[in-house]
Design a protein that fits this description.
Shape: globular
Helix content: over 70%
Strand order of the largest sheet: 1-2
Order of helices and strands: HHHHHHEEHHHHHHHHHHHH
CATH superfamily of one domain: Cytochrome c oxidase-like, subunit I domain
Oligomer: single chain
Number of helices: 18
Bound molecules: protoporphyrin IX containing FE
Mean pLDDT: 96
């Protein structure tokens, strides 16, 4: 049995390449919509308007880049931590093909305007069924491989992957329960305030179980692997895991502060939201102490900066997030650009940095070579860091400005600013965001070139060794 079969590296590589492909498409569309906000002529009806492109951006990156990387890298991690091949390697290959077909159909349907109007759950019911099939295949392979494992101990990354598989399945199915009225149209079984509550229970946990738990699984696996320094505390990692998964599921209503949702539900969500700082920082502290245990050794590895900056953004994000849930803060920043600022510190900072660093580790390993260029990886790192900072900081400034101006009143109680005046003041910030996005995108192009050249290098070595 050759190594490739045993560890099914080709499927892992396929998922990584697919995730990068959908990621680039999603990022370019992100740039496009960022321009549309200050240059409306860039809307091309009917398919390429802001309303349609925005959902292609969020779905392309959440499901294409995020979930694609999660599938591939989870397979990589589980096989190694279980010390056993995937239970059904052929099914995993089918999973890869089906994943790409589903993402392509999702993009086409969203361009065509088919939309359930639930954020992050926009896909219509036939595609929802496809997503459930994809997830069942993933679950069968993950659980099957873990059950057959040859290593008795369950490292923390496995727990985070299990939580991802279970939670996403429940959340996705419940929030997508609907009654079809045709092939391309359906109506949710929930209505009014119930619908909003279920939607944000799902929406916030999409953040928790797509942009947090699987990314923490990668962080806990690849930081020790790439530095050679064992994780600082297994006990802390387990305590933060259980408290994180317990608390996350109660917090969704913090998206609905000051809405008709009963007050007590909002308050319950806010309490759990504030509590979330603790388990989140459990992982942040664990990461810092791991690298700090032998800083010269950690520093010598080019991936450490990705992981440490990534977890630092996660740390900032998980202080900012709980603050946003508080009523006094929410009334200022909700419905403003502050929120996309928060979102992109998490997605461009924490998620994309950690995923990219994991890919930098995995690709050379499975191509049996070294990374093509550490210099290019460093350039990539600084460009995405600068791009993300420009993006987030400008959105925070303009968000506070929007919140403050829309609340300003004259002595007679009338509003001081008309909506259009507030919007006009956003233009310079929106232009800065596009600049940040361009810098980030150039950084990602350096990353792709480096990965492409590493795969080529691996192939050339394999030929010369044959
Ligand atoms: C302790 C952890 C976190 C908490 C308590 C939290 C809290 C919040 C709150 C209260 C909002 C709503 C803001 C508003 O609209 O008024 C929000 C939005 C959001 N957060 Fe976080 N956040 C956390 C971590 C993260 C992380 C790690 C990410 C990863 C990328 C993230 C991504 C998002 C996204 C995508 C939204 C926008 C949702 C939407 O309106 O479409 N958050 N968060
Ligand atoms: C060049 C990089 C990027 C640019 C220019 C960009 C641009 C944008 C813009 C303009 C919006 C709409 C904001 C609004 O409605 O006011 C948005 C939303 C969003 N983007 Fe990005 N984006 C980029 C990268 C990413 C990445 C890498 C991810 C995920 C991995 C991501 C995930 C999201 C999400 C989840 C939202 C919805 C936020 C919300 O509803 O509050 N973006 N992006």
């Amino acid at each position: 049995m050759n190594d490739d079969y045993q560890y099914d590296n080709q499927t892992v590589k396929g998922f990584i390449v697919s995730s990068i492909f959908w990621g680039v498409a999603g990022i370019l569309i992100g740039l496009w919509i960022s321009v549309q906000l200050w240059k409306p002529e860039w809307n091309v009806p009917p398919f390429f308007t802001y309303g349609r492109l925005r959902v292609v951006h969020t779905n392309g990156l959440t499901f294409g880049l995020g979930v694609g990387a999660i599938f591939g890298i989870s397979y990589y991690i589980v096989m190694r931590l279980a010390k056993t091949p995937l239970l059904f390697p052929k099914l995993a290959r089918f999973h890869l093909y089906l994943f790409n077909i589903a993402i392509a159909l999702a993009a086409v349907s969203l361009f065509a305007g088919m939309n359930q109007s639930l954020e992050y759950a926009e896909l219509e019911w036939p595609l929802d069924i496809g997503v459930v099939i994809l997830w069942v295949i993933f679950a069968v392979n993950i659980f099957g491989t873990i059950i057959r494992r040859k290593e008795e101990q369950m490292y923390i990354s496995l727990w985070y992957i299990i939580a991802t598989v279970v939670a996403v399945a429940i959340l996705y199915i419940v929030n997508n329960l609907s009654v079809p009225s045709g092939l391309f149209k359906s109506y949710s079984v929930f209505a009014g305030v119930n619908s909003a509550n279920v939607q944000w229970w799902y929406g916030h946990n999409a953040v928790g179980f797509v942009f947090t738990t699987p990314i923490l699984a990668m962080f806990y696996y690849f930081l020790p692997k790439s530095t050679g320094i064992p994780i600082f505390s297994h006990r802390l990692s387990i305590i933060s895991f259980w408290s994180l998964v317990f608390a996350y599921l109660w917090t969704g209503a913090h998206h609905l502060v000051y809405t008709p949702l009963p007050d007590w539900i909002q308050t319950l969500a806010i309490v759990f939201t504030v509590f979330l700082i603790a388990p989140s920082w459990g992982s942040v502290v664990n990461g810092f102490y791991t690298a700090g245990a032998d800083w010269p050794k950690a520093q010598a590895n080019y991936l450490t900066k990705f992981f440490i900056l990534g977890i630092t953004f996660y740390g900032l994000q998980t202080v900012q997030g709980p603050t946003q849930g508080l009523r006094v803060v929410s009334q200022l920043i909700h419905y403003t650009d502050w929120v996309p600022g928060h979102v992109h510190m998490g997605t461009m900072g924490w998620v994309t940095m950690t995923v990219a660093a994991s890919i930098y580790y995995v690709i050379p390993k499975i191509c049996k070579t070294d990374i093509y260029s550490i210099g290019i990886a460093n350039t990539h790192f600084y460009l995405v860091l600068i791009g993300q900072l420009i993006f987030s900081i400008t959105m925070w400034i303009t968000g506070i400005q929007q919140g403050a101006l829309s609340k300003a009143v004259n002595p007679d109680g009338s509003l001081k600013y008309a909506m259009v005046e507030i919007i006009a003041k956003n233009y310079p910030y929106w232009q800065m965001r596009t600049l940040g996005g361009v810098i980030f995108t150039i950084g990602m192009l350096f990353f792709i070139y480096n990965i492409y050249m590493t795969i080529r290098k691996g192939k050339a070595l394999a030929v010369s060794n044959a």
